[in-house]
Design goal:
The complex is a heterodimer of chains A (67) and B (137). Chain A is built from 5 helices and 2 strands. Chain A is mainly alpha-helical. Chain B is mostly helical and 137 residues long. Chain B has one domain. Classes of the chains: A mainly alpha (67), B mainly alpha (137).
C-alpha cells in the first residue's frame, strides 16, 4: 500500500514557523501538524489545500505517494 | 506580566482532558445508583445529588467552551474511538446478560454490573482516545 509522504516540515522550517503557529494559521491543533509531519495521518483534501495555501504551493508539491 | 496573564486566560483545554472529564457523569451514575440502593431517597441525598448535578453540568460546560479546536483529526479519532467502544459495550452487555441468565444474580447486582460497565466503558473511551491522539492513526 503506498504511503503518503509530506514536505510540510521542510516548508515550515523554511518559513521559520513553529508547529503551533502553523496550526493556528490553518485552524487545527498542534497535534494534527505533528501527526501530519510524521506521516501518521492522511489529511482531507480541504486540509491539504489549506496547508498548501499557507506555503503558496500546490497540493502535489506538498504531498506525494511513495510505494 | 500582562502578556503572561493574557496567555493564561486564553489557554485552551486539551482535548484529552476534555474527554477524560467526560468520565465524571458515568461516575455520578454509579454513585447515584449506589445512593438509591443504600439510602432510599433520603432528602439529604437528594440535595447532594442536585448540587452535584449542577456542579458537574457547569464544569462540563466550561470545559467544553474552553476546549481546544475540534479539528478533523480529533473528529476522526473520536469516531474511531467510538467504533471500538461500541464493540466493547457489546461484550460488556453480553457478559452481564450471561451472568444474569446462568448465575441467577439479583436485580441489585445486575444494576451494579450495568453501572460498573458504563464506568468501565467511559474510562476505556478516554484511554483509547488519548492513545490514538498521542500516537496517531
Amino acid at each position: 500500500m503506498p504511503t503518503l509522504k509530506t514536505k510540510i516540515r521542510e516548508y515550515r522550517e523554511n518559513m521559520n514557523l513553529k508547529q503551533s503557529e502553523l496550526a493556528k494559521l490553518i485552524g487545527v491543533r498542534r497535534e494534527t501538524i505533528v501527526h501530519l509531519e510524521n506521516g501518521k495521518y492522511n489529511p482531507s483534501l480541504k486540509l491539504a489545500m489549506d496547508i498548501a495555501k499557507v506555503f503558496h504551493k500546490t497540493v502535489e508539491e506538498l504531498f506525494e505517494f511513495e510505494d | 506580566m500582562k502578556e503572561q496573564q493574557i496567555k493564561t486566560k486564553d489557554k485552551k483545554v486539551n482535548l484529552r482532558v476534555w474527554i477524560s472529564a467526560e468520565i465524571i457523569p458515568s461516575l455520578w451514575l454509579f454513585a447515584y445508583y449506589w445512593m438509591c440502593i443504600k439510602h432510599y431517597y433520603q432528602p439529604i441525598n437528594v440535595i447532594i445529588q442536585y448540587a452535584f448535578i449542577g456542579c458537574m453540568t457547569l464544569f462540563l460546560m466550561i470545559i467544553k467552551r474552553k476546549r481546544d479546536v475540534f479539528d478533523e483529526f480529533a473528529k476522526e479519532t473520536l469516531y474511531k474511538t467510538n467504533t471500538i467502544c461500541l464493540d466493547i459495550a457489546y461484550i460488556i452487555m453480553a457478559i452481564i446478560l450471561f451472568n444474569a441468565t446462568f448465575i441467577n444474580q439479583t436485580a441489585v447486582i445486575i444494576g451494579y454490573l450495568i453501572a460498573g460497565g458504563i464506568v468501565l466503558l467511559s474510562v476505556t473511551r478516554a484511554i483509547i482516545f488519548c492513545v490514538i491522539d498521542r500516537q496517531g492513526m
